[in-house]
UniProtKB/TrEMBL annotation:
GO BP term (any one): DNA integration
Stated family: Belongs to the 'phage' integrase family.
Keyword terms, alphabetized: DNA integration, DNA recombination, DNA-binding
Statement: the UniProt record of this protein carries the keyword DNA-binding: yes
Span of domain Tyr recombinase: 208-388
Name under which the protein is recorded: Tyrosine-type recombinase/integrase
């Protein structure tokens, strides 16, 4: 059979009917409504199902005779190897369609963002995934992610910072559920990941037994690891400020310039940023003020911003620093945590004979006794200033 020429192809009409290519078995040109145009079709028997199939190869003249022949020969080669070309093409199309975990996360984040009243929560939602998840599985396609991949991602923080790990797990679950709903993955691997991870300690144990540095070690730790830092180093001054104020990590990381009164030497943390949802005033010592002044100019709102992204830092920043410096704790086999410095401060208060009420109010702990809380309405700011100045004097004593 003679091979189809352009002259004959340009003359194809509905009346002339289908024209065989002549050089490739099963390759034909089917006419369209317009003279000289048509569609390429390769007819073949599937080596898998043994059924006849028609594979479209594009339109003529957009797809030339030679290009159609080349594509058809490649398909014929697949058929000889026992591969059904259309089935293989469908698999490739599905892979190309399935998003990576990072792309899916950002798509879901964009959908959820308008529903969150707290803009900061929306930022934290994606920040935790950027910090803990994207470096591990961000580039993986959703249908490739298995429970072991999720477990390997969570394991480094699962016991060290369990509350954060729990939030990260919830967000991974939300992304994979979104993928399952869009038919990008057959199931949600997070549903069974608990079988690959050790049990976390219950919340009461986590609250009362945070690995803490012994209070006598703190002055030496500050001198060796926190006093020398570059101009744009935020981690060291932030950690020293956290120690001096006995504040929670989230309160310091989210601290804004509008909360600081340099004249009255007070840092006022608004209720919405406090764990107990009660406004908390922190008396600032001289060293604390000195640290704040060293941060002026880094960000118009945040006191301790991420140097690169200019957003609130992740709590993993302090954890990573304490790991790098091998900060010892009073818990065998574990390093000190940022939250543990609050326990160090509380122990120091007890040893030095400071009143329990002063220490508890400095830590912004709520009064458990309702009757006592009803009558005790002052935050004892002036008395706490004396206490915090003494704490600074001890911390900076070496």
């Amino acid at each position: 059979m003679a091979i189809l020429t352009d002259a004959k192809a340009r003359s194809i009409t509905l009346e002339s009917g289908v024209i065989a290519h002549g050089g490739v078995t099963g390759l034909t040109l089917h006419p369209s409504n317009t003279k000289g145009s048509g569609k390429w079709v390769l007819r073949y028997v599937s080596p898998v199902t043994q059924k006849r199939r028609n594979a479209g190869l594009g339109s003529y003249p957009e797809v030339s005779i030679s290009r159609a022949a080349k594509a058809a020969l490649e398909m014929r080669s697949q058929i000889e190897q026992g591969i059904d070309p259309l089935t293989e093409k469908a698999k490739i199309t599905k892979i190309q369609k399935t998003p990576s975990f990072e792309d899916a996360s950002r798509a879901l984040h964009a959908e959820l963002l308008p529903s969150w009243k707290n803009e900061k929560h929306g930022q934290q939602w994606i920040n935790t995934l950027e910090q803990y998840v994207f470096p591990q599985i961000g580039e993986m396609l959703l249908d490739q992610i298995q429970p072991r991949h999720i477990a390997d991602t969570l394991r480094p923080i699962w016991l060290e910072i369990p509350e954060t790990a729990g939030r990260v797990k919830q967000r991974i679950h939300a992304v994979m559920a979104w993928g399952w709903a869009h038919e990008y993955c057959p199931s949600n691997p997070v549903d069974v990941v608990q079988h690959l991870l050790p049990p976390q300690p219950n919340k009461s144990i986590r609250t009362t037994h945070q690995p803490a540095m012994h209070w006598e070690e703190i002055p030496n730790f500050i001198r060796e690891h926190l006093r020398e830092f570059e101009q744009y180093d935020v981690t060291r001054p932030m950690l020293e400020f956290l120690i001096l104020t006995a504040a929670r990590s989230g309160e310091v990381r989210g601290m804004t310039w509008s909360e600081v009164d340099f004249v009255k030497k007070i840092w006022t943390v608004p209720a919405e940023r406090m764990k107990a949802k009660i406004l908390h005033r922190v008396p600032l010592s001289e060293r604390g003020l000195e640290i704040l002044k060293s941060q002026v100019g880094l960000h118009k709102e945040l006191v301790f911003p991420s140097p690169r992204k200019q957003v609130e830092l992740s709590d993993m920043v302090l954890t990573s620093f304490l790991r790098r410096t091998k900060a010892k704790s009073d818990t065998p086999g574990r390093l000190a945590t940022a939250h543990g410095f609050r326990s160090s401060f509380r122990d120091w208060c007890s040893v030095k004979g400071y009143a329990r009420d002063l220490a508890e109010r400095s830590l912004a702990h709520t009064i458990q006794n309702r009757v006592e809380a009803a009558y005790h309405r002052t935050d004892l700011l002036d008395q706490r200033r004396v206490l915090m100045d003494a704490w600074e004097a001890f911390c900076c004593s070496i």
